[in-house]
Amino acid sequence: MTTKSGMQVTLTIPDGASPGTLLSVPVRGGAEQIKVRVPSGLGPGSTLIMTQADGSDEWGMKVGKVIPAEEGDEQTVVGNGYESAVANYHPAEVDSPQPALEGAVAFTVRLETTVGVIDIIVRPDWAPLGTRRFLELAASGDLADLAFYRAIEGCIVQFGLPAKRTWPCIPDDPATGVPFLLGAVSFAAIGENTRRSTLFICIGDMSHMLGQKSWEIPIGAVAESSLDVLESISTAYGDIAEFGGTGPDTSRINAEGNAYLASNFPQLSYIRSAYPLDWPGPGDDGSQGSPIGQGSPDAGDPRAAARGDA
Hints:
Helix content: 10-25%
Number of helices: 5
Radius of gyration: 21 Å
Structural class: alpha+beta
Shape: elongated
Number of strands: 16
Mean pLDDT: 78
Order of helices and strands: EEEEEEEEEHEEEEEEHHHEH
């Protein structure tokens, strides 16, 4: 093979992706996505080799391993229209194809909000524990009728209060290096192994402030098609009262619920419903998703360090 300076990406066509399916492939540690349509005749397990020369914006593609598609396969659309593919990338001298990673599945959670639909692409390969909790929250209805009660322009929008029930803390996921760019979704926490049921979405590039703590791990990202809706979430009140803002007091949210928010902060945006589009549901792998435990949600500061169920 001719050697040249650049980047090579070897991706494996995932199960369920028939010819014509549009794949969304993370590169550079998830900081970028490239879109690749499955060529005719290729079935799951086949590999595609993408190359990009230094200084070029274009990707070239050739077929690696071929597993023929079954007859009758047609284009499939999953979630927001993209199936997840797993890529093994390396900035290097491109000498030979690199082995592909095992297939990782992505799911889509849809938030129907007062400003429009927001689809979140959830990535178990980034944060398996956080991903599962988020899917459980959405599937159980616990994210419905919740305000973006903490909405700081250019920073984050946070949701999850008042909690409908108390979920147990989950351990921190291993660090992956995925940056907190625009659209990144993560749990808020107050310290190690304290993630429960409060989350935030970055509405600006927060990679310079987030990602240093063990619990600061993105679990997914807002689909590109939903970014314009993300920009429409109201940031009229800014930060919460506990951190010097003019926004709500989280202790009153917990005590009085949405009535307090509606009376005092009428411009807040809300999640009306939230549900997975393509997740089979809890229990399929033998684990349980029921919340347990007692106590009140924790408080914290995700603007400074993505902390707190506040």
